[in-house]
Design a protein that fits this description.
binds 2-acetamido-2-deoxy-beta-D-glucopyranose, AS_sf, twelve-stranded mixed beta sheet, Arp1_N, signal, 29 strands, Amidase_dom, Amidase domain-containing protein
Amino acid sequence: MSFLRLALVASLSASTLASGPAGNENYQFQARNSLRSLSSTNRLNVRGDLAPVGISIEQTSYTFSIQDGTDDKIYISPAGDKFKKYSLSANGRGSLKQEVGGAIMPVTAFDVTGQSQVTCDTMGDAVSKYLSADDVWNEAFMQTILLKSDSPISFSSDLHECLSTHWGISVVLSTAQTQGSLQGIDIKTVSGQDVPAGPYIASYNASSDTVDLTEVFRLYRDQEQAFTTPLIPFADGQSFCPLAAQVDGMNTISIPVPSRLYTKYLADPRPLEGVRVAVKDLYDVAGVPSGLGNRAYWLTYEPRNVTAVSIQRLIDQGAVIIGKVKTSQFANGETPTADWQDQFSPFNIRGDGYMDPSTSSAGSGASIGAYDWVDVTIGSDTGGSVRDPAANNGAFGIRPSHTAISLEGVMPMSAPLDTAGFLTRDAKEFAEFGKAWYGDRFESYGQKPKTIFVPNDYFPLPADANPGAQPIYDSFIDSLQTYLNASIDTRSFADIWNSSGTMDQVQQTIPLFLNETYPTLIGYYQWTNFGKPWFEDYASQHDGRTPFIDSQPAVRWAYGRQRGESGYQEELRRKNVFKDFFSTHVLKADNETCTDALFLYPINTGTTSYRNGYKAPPQPPFGIFNEAYAPFHEGPEISIPLSQVPYNSTITNHVEYLPVSVAIMARPGCDYVLLDLAAGLQDAGIISATQTGSLTYPLK
Ligand SMILES: *[C@@H]1O[C@H](CO)[C@@H](O)[C@H](O)[C@H]1NC(C)=O
Ligand SMILES: *[C@@H]1O[C@H](CO)[C@@H](O)[C@H](O)[C@H]1NC(C)=O
Ligand SMILES: *[C@@H]1O[C@H](CO)[C@@H](O)[C@H](O)[C@H]1NC(C)=O
Ligand SMILES: *[C@@H]1O[C@H](CO)[C@@H](O)[C@H](O)[C@H]1NC(C)=O
Ligand SMILES: *[C@@H]1O[C@H](CO)[C@@H](O)[C@H](O)[C@H]1NC(C)=O
Ligand SMILES: *[C@@H]1O[C@H](CO)[C@@H](O)[C@H](O)[C@H]1NC(C)=O
Ligand SMILES: *[C@@H]1O[C@H](CO)[C@@H](O)[C@H](O)[C@H]1NC(C)=O
């Protein structure tokens, strides 16, 4: 019996074992994959400046690759005291220690509780289930299996041949008493900690005389350059070790993603158990510094000791934090050429791959559009920073009602406007995740809103929209009207404003009245509450020097200083005048539906925004823009993808496709009306989940 062993340094040659005859298994047999080790010291580099004192993943982790067809899958298994491990001791037949020896050994744990007999079929079913449920687990981990059960198990007569021919298994570990033999296969009874299902690396620890199973993470390439810091949780699950690992040929950092099997079969899963989440790099995560898109800022402070309240809430509910993703600087709006001066803008994979990912949750948008190994990305939204990246990258995104969740431990932009939002590719996951995160802060309603605002300032679309977009909106609005059994109101915003009485009071149109509101609320607030104290800390560390900041925040902060406290108070007053107007005349309270109406506008019409296009020099964001209405009236807004449209790319000289998205606004507190709506529209087949990659949907 031969099985491959992983030696730590020696490179094992890949050897493919011949597959046996098909037998009676009812699963798809796949050619057995081979494991080979990488030299841990050469292939993975830990940036010493990032690693917390005393921790070097390089010294305490196993790295290896699995050749799966043409795909070279790279893995890391962090070992040592700081990381999660399960210790086993062999107290039955045979010595586990001898088996592992000085090497390491791949193991797969299966839960066979309730099965009195383990057969080739039950193993085959489990293997098929694992393969379809998880992108990390691989049959290469079937060199040793651990069968978990609390009652005695017996083996079917076909099991020996099945295990040895299909997977070359020569050792079976079992936590239960076993009956029957497996001929040449060594069966060892082990005891120790309960091990969740999934892949592990086993190693023998002489000082504790135990065999320790460490968790396995697959390392993914971050081709779109969306991440700033990959993270591996320490054993307590509460703080994180930055893994600045780079695998040869990747040219980017590598993101560690744990097996989904660890959490998939838990008896009592928490609401977000195993959901893989990437977090915008302006939320604090314990163990790493917060970068906020600025190099000088990243160096100013120690790693954070406390995770932001909102992110802690995700961790407490079982979410897996896999890394931090890029924000444009201090969450200010930036376009790739040439605003991203201190950090490189992530790539938007849609279409030709050279569109602006939008901002400020640029990494959140780019990663959700590109990586099927990421489930949800956390962004923040002050004036469109979740909704626009969601629209540009073909994803669902929400800006919740103001005060939906605590922003403690999050960089402020403008406290009256800041919110914590997120992005997904699936409307049902969108609703489930939102309800788990925002909790009982909001309610669902049995009845649906009765009116849809489709203002004639937005529909029909402007001339620069992609010609394919108008029919998509027409068809969506028709379907939405039928779905809600609602009436359509096409009055323009200006009409409603002019006839509201607010106009009589302020004697100004909306664009004039609110012209300087947004730039003042962000510029003054962020400079006063964030920029100024940081400049002082930086100066005291650097002999009075000033840190570098990108031109966009520089211009906005300078404008904020110019407006001062009295300007800020005046603009806050104007924002609140608008809020009163909006909640009295546009989206009104309704006991049965929460919001009597929904307000629609087109948020991505499939127009191109090439990342190599030069824009005008920065200036404060004067004027009113669509994305500002929700923040000004403090209500929720979702951005949902509807379809995709073709365009002739000037990059590829080929037809490519860009997503088309709509924004839908509701009254403050009616967040779940929007989440339920998105999920309901997907159930009804009116919208669908998006896929990763250049195409947001498969071509029909
Ligand atoms: C081995 O066990 C000892 C004693 O429990 C422990 O201090 C040490 O960290 C372990 N080594 C590893 C690599 O886990
Ligand atoms: C974290 O705690 C350590 C030890 O108490 C302290 O030195 C450090 O300044 C703290 N870091 C931050 C960002 O507060
Ligand atoms: C749709 O709404 C109208 C009036 O608003 C009502 O009379 C009708 O019964 C509703 N139809 C359905 C299917 O609920
Ligand atoms: C609203 O009122 C302003 C100021 O009187 C006027 O210029 C504008 O045309 C009006 N808009 C509409 C749609 O009535
Ligand atoms: C908005 O304010 C800026 C700065 O004061 C000014 O330059 C611009 O003309 C104003 N725009 C409108 C439409 O009033
Ligand atoms: C809504 O509920 C409140 C409180 O129960 C009640 O005072 C109000 O009259 C209700 N409004 C409508 C339109 O039913
Ligand atoms: C692309 O360009 C060709 C040639 O000008 C034109 O016929 C075609 O309609 C264009 N396609 C799209 C999607 O714009």
